[in-house]
Amino acid sequence: MSKPFDCVLFDLDGTLLDTSYDFSYALNLLCEQHQLTPPSYDVVRNTVSQGGAAVTALAFSPDNPAKFEQQRQAFLALYKQHINLHTHIFPGLLAGLVHLTKHNMPWGIVTNKPQGLTEHLLSFFEFPTPPKTVICGDTLAVRKPHPEPMWLAAQECGVDPKRCLYLGDHPRDIEAGMNAGMQTGAVLFGYMSAEKMTNLAQADHIFRTPYDITKFLTERVK
Length: 222
Hints:
Blueprint: E1 7-10, E2 17-18, H1 20-33, H2 41-45, H3 52-56, H4 65-81, E3 88-89, H5 94-102, E4 107-110, H6 115-122, E5 133-135, H7 148-157, E6 164-168, H8 171-179, E7 183-187, E8 205-207, H9 210-220
Parallel strand pairs: 1-4, 1-6, 4-5, 6-7, 7-8
Antiparallel strand pairs: 2-3
Keywords: Carbohydrate metabolism, Hydrolase, Magnesium, Metal-binding
GO molecular function: metal ion binding; phosphoglycolate phosphatase activity
Organism: Thiomicrospira cyclica (strain DSM 14477 / JCM 11371 / ALM1) (Thioalkalimicrobium cyclicum)
């Protein structure tokens, strides 16, 4: 049986890497500086996919935009400083990347994380083969769920978008993959509960654990 796709693309935070602990740690440090009680780790984890401003707003009021922007920038600076303190590849997923490497299948990353933070974070990781493409939230003038970042990733991998599988843990990831004409996989071990994955039924595949992804890849890529 021929493989159903020729490229695998991953969202970054909550899909490929578990970055939630370092987001929580950075916010804790900022709260400590301001003598505030930090939100719980679980609250931060459930907010990571919404971006730095949303995480900052868990502890600081956005009512004063100028002051809030200073707090957001301070949070991001602390996050960058401690970006790889606790972050790791989701357990069980590395074997899937090894399998893709063994079968010479390109893989890549499409994230809404800014390029500066993405490149800094990825510099700490050595994958079986480096990603063929890394498209960030500011690579283009638009970002997910717009299809252009997805199309650029497919182009850089030399694969027709229809032959790409995109994996993500947020409704916009499924939307982005669908908008680009890609196959989609909903990741339920990330930062969004199944209840909040509002378009879950539209995903081509559902993965409840990283091991499910590896099992799927080893079965389909031969």
